[in-house]
Design goal:
This protein is mostly helical. The chain has a domain at 2-108 and 118-181. Helix content is 63%, strand content 1%. The chain has 13 helices and 2 strands; from the N terminus they run αααααααααααββαα. The protein has helices spanning 2-18, 27-37, 47-67, 78-90, 95-101, 104-107, 114-122, 126-155, 160-202, 208-221, 226-238, 296-302, 307-322; strands at 264-265, 285-286. A two-stranded parallel ribbon has the order 1-2. The longest helix has 43 residues, at 160-202. The radius of gyration is 31 Å and the shape is elongated. The chain starts with a helix and ends with a helix.
C-alpha cells in the first residue's frame, strides 16, 4: 500500500485545505448515501460498462470522503471503498437484468429446448457454477435494492423501505468515521510518545508539568486539537504511574526513568524495570514499614545472571511466603 499512499497523500492534503473542518465528519455519510441519491443518468448506459462506471464513481466518492478526514495523510480503508463501489454498481439502472444476463442461464439461446438448456447447465465446470452463483447472488442484491427504492418512491422516505435503505449508508458512514477517529487517536498517541521520549533524553530533570506542556505544545504545532493533545498526553504519562506495582514493560520501549512527581507503587512488592542505570536512584517508589528491598545484584543472582528470570523466581518466593501468614 506504500505506493498508493504516495498518490493519495497529496490528494488528502489538498482536500484537507479545500473542505471546511466543520463538514468533514459528514462526508462519509454523504458518500455512503450517494449510490441511492445519484440520478439514473449519471454514469449511465447499459450492461457491464454501466455497472463499472457507477461503481467507480461511488467508490471514488467514498475514497475522497475518507481522504478528506483530519489526520488521514493518504490512509484509507480499501474495504469501505469496495463496499461503496459495489453498492453503486448494484444501484445502476438495469443492474439486475445485466447481472442475470452474464450468467450461463442468461446467455443461453431461448430458442433451444428445455432439454438442451438443461444439458448446458448440467455440463458447467465448477468455476462456471461458482461464477453463476456469484452473479445470481449479486442480481438478487440489486433486485432487493431496487425494490427498496421503488417502495420509497411509492410510500415515502419514512416508510419501512426507507428505514431499511437508510440503514446502509448510516452503517457504512459510521464505520468510516470510527476508523478515521481511531487512526487519528493513534497518531496523536504516537506523537505524544515521541515527544515524551525526546524529553527523556534531553531533559532528565523535567517535571510532570514540563512533559505535559511540551507534549501539548508540539502536538498543537503538528495540527492536533487541544482535546486530542490533552487526551494523548494523559494517556502517555499515565503509563508511567504504576499504581498497582508489579513487573511492567517499558513505555513504548526504551530505557525510561520516573519523572519527578510520579512514583512506582511497590507497597505490594514488585520488580523495577525502569531507570537509567543500577544504583542511579532515579526511580521514585513507595515502600512501607517491614518491607524489604533486594539489590539488583541479588535479583540477578536469583536468576543466575538474568534479572528477569530472577524477578520471576522472587515473585514465586514472595507469593509462597505470603501464603504462610
Amino acid at each position: 500500500m506504500g505506493f498508493l499512499k504516495k498518490i493519495t497523500k497529496p490528494i488528502s492534503k489538498a482536500l484537507g485545505k479545500i473542505i471546511p473542518n466543520e463538514i468533514k465528519p459528514f462526508l462519509p455519510y454523504a458518500a455512503a448515501a450517494a449510490p441511492f441519491l445519484l440520478p439514473a443518468g449519471i454514469a449511465g448506459g447499459s450492461g457491464l460498462g454501466a455497472l463499472l462506471r457507477r461503481g467507480a464513481l461511488t467508490g471514488g466518492l467514498n475514497l475522497a470522503a475518507q481522504l478528506a478526514q483530519e489526520g488521514s495523510e493518504g490512509e484509507f480503508n480499501p474495504l469501505s471503498v469496495l463496499l461503496a463501489g459495489g453498492t453503486g454498481a448494484l444501484t445502476a439502472p438495469g443492474a439486475t437484468a445485466s447481472l442475470k444476463g452474464m450468467t450461463t442461464a442468461g446467455s443461453i439461446d431461448p430458442a433451444l429446448g428445455s432439454s438442451a438448456q438443461g444439458d448446458i447447465l448440467a455440463g458447467r465446470s465448477f468455476l462456471t457454477k461458482a461464477k453463476d452463483f456469484g452473479l445470481t447472488s449479486l442480481a438478487k442484491g440489486a433486485e432487493g435494492l431496487s425494490s427498496l427504492q421503488k417502495g420509497i418512491a411509492e410510500k415515502g422516505l419514512f416508510s419501512k423501505e426507507g428505514l431499511k435503505l437508510a440503514s446502509i449508508p448510516v452503517t457504512q458512514g459510521t464505520m468510516d468515521v470510527a476508523v478515521a477517529g481511531a487512526r487519528r487517536e493513534q497518531k496523536a498517541y504516537d506523537q505524544a510518545l515521541e515527544e515524551f521520549n525526546r524529553m527523556q533524553k534531553e531533559m532528565s530533570g523535567a517535571t510532570y508539568n514540563d512533559y505535559y506542556d511540551n507534549i501539548l505544545k508540539y502536538m498543537d504545532l503538528a495540527g492536533f486539537t487541544a482535546e486530542e493533545a490533552e487526551a494523548a498526553a494523559e494517556r502517555v504519562l499515565s503509563g508511567i504511574n504504576f499504581a498497582n506495582g508489579g513487573r511492567v514493560g517499558y513505555l513504548g520501549g526504551g530505557n525510561v526513568a520516573t519523572p519527578p512527581g510520579m512514583e512506582m507503587d511497590l507497597r505490594v512488592g514488585g520488580f523495577i524495570p525502569i531507570g537509567q542505570a543500577e544504583r542511579a536512584d532515579d526511580v521514585l517508589a513507595r515502600v512501607s514499614k517491614n518491607e524489604f528491598v533486594m539489590t539488583a545484584d541479588a535479583v540477578r543472582g536469583m536468576g543466575n545472571g538474568d534479572p528477569r528470570a530472577g524477578a520471576q523466581k522472587m515473585y514465586q518466593l514472595m507469593n509462597n511466603l505470603e501464603a504462610r501468614v
